[in-house]
Amino acid sequence: MVVLLGEPGEPFSDAARLLSWSFDAFRSSTVVRAGESFGSRQIGGSVVDVAAGEELTLLVPTAEATSSRAVLSESSGLGLQPGDAVGVVVVSAGDSKLGQAPLIAVRVVGQEEEPSHSWWTRAGSSIFEAISAALDGTTGG
After folding, report:
1. Around Cβ 28, how many Cβ atoms within 10 Å?
2. What pLDDT sits at residue 54?
3. Cβ neighbours around 45 below 10 Å, total
4. 3-state helix, strand, coil in the chain (%, to 5)
């Protein structure tokens, strides 16, 4: 809604010009599609195929081209599964950020293995090593 206060005469022509300009200057556009690939990225010890997690539709300036880029969040990569969030897709026009959509892992290749032993097996092994080291120190061995 446009209101022009204190305008003598016919105020609607200015309002119509302003509305006409805004409809000509911007358009609704789907700038990122759900599932759109953003390539493979190195995350921790894994190569991860990433894609947009959802569609992003924005009002974009008609006079400027939009660009999108993947921005990864800090992650070790351990335990990463398809569908996990790994960052965002940032959409810009010129120097202006227009919006963002989640970036998700689609496929994880070469993931470093997490230790296969249970925590109590690893804890018991550590205690055994500590006691052995202490005994070796007291016996001079």
Report:
1. 8
2. 96
3. 13
4. 25, 40, 35
pLDDT band (50, 70, 90) for residue 52: very high
- Predicted local confidence at residue 7, as pLDDT: 59
What CATH code would you report for 28-113? 2.60.410.10
Which pLDDT score, from 0 to 100, does residue 111 have? 59
Nearest to 75 by CA among 52, 103, 95, 100: 103
Domain ranges of the chain: 28-113
| pTM of structure | 0.64
Asked if 51 and 103 count as a contact pair (C-beta separation under 8 A), the reply is yes
Q: Residue 112: is its pLDDT beyond 70?
A: no
C-alpha radius of gyration, the chain, whole number: 28
